[in-house]
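Good morning C.,

I know you're traveling, so I'll keep this short. The sequence:
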Amino acid sequence: MISICLPIYNFDINELVEELLRQAREFNISVEILAFDDASLSYYKKRNSKVAINSNVHYLEFDHNLGRSKIRNRLADFAQGNWLLFIDCDMMPELPNYLNNYNSVIDQANVICGGTSYGSKPIKSELLLRWNYGVYRESRNALRRQIKPYVSFLSGNFMIRKEVFNAIRFNEDMSGYGHEDTLFGLNLKKQSVSVLHINNPCIHLGIEPCFDYLVKTEQGIINLVRLMRIVPDQRKSLQSNIRLLKFYCAFRKVGLGYPLRWIFRVFNPLIRRLLCSSRPSILLFDLYKLGMIAQVFNKVNLSNNKAN
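The tokens, ready to paste straight into the viewer:
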């Protein structure tokens, strides 16, 4: 049996659950759906609680927010299946045979990643930055992802053997938004777990408005720097595999750490306005993130010695 694990936070999952149940019936795949609400607003709780009328759906609400790592671990704790399929609540299978695609390769690896896709270009300019970044940086076919299978790991759409998950789990020291999947991917690599990437994407529906996405980006960068402190033994691996860290370390080695901080401090308001315009630049977004990580690195001491 496949345990489909849905961590919920402020998103309507009714259509997602209905589609998953339809596919399970059509392809005669044994599933249970665990839908755990991580302290969403009452509006979403009221709507999502309706999925509990299905006998194959187990719906549970938490009164306080556990966070992205803990909620996934709790889902795994309750799961009865030998396989866990994690899908973010703001995802929707792109293919009508999505479940069958996973089921057909179930014995080929211990972790199977389906990938992420994005819908048509949004009309509202406030959504363009997130959509552009998703299309040009996150939406990759299986062949490209398989080149670096662990670095390409994303937690929004993947299946894993339960026994393998229990040996790794999401690190609950990671709080807030961002990079819990980075650490999970590194731990898969550390334990030489087989990972297979396939073309079985979910469409990312929850595209945030620009300023909300910038806040999340900043939270993710803070988490990335914290991650280097949490797992100092993997610091070199992070620096060599995470594109943002690799570029920042290169800039810092040639003495450009201070100029990056200065650019971020002086031009931050202008850059944010340009990123939230009708023509956001991904290259400008890269510069923004470089400036942000320079600021964070300047404030955080990772150990007795400064990070490289």
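Safe travels,
E.
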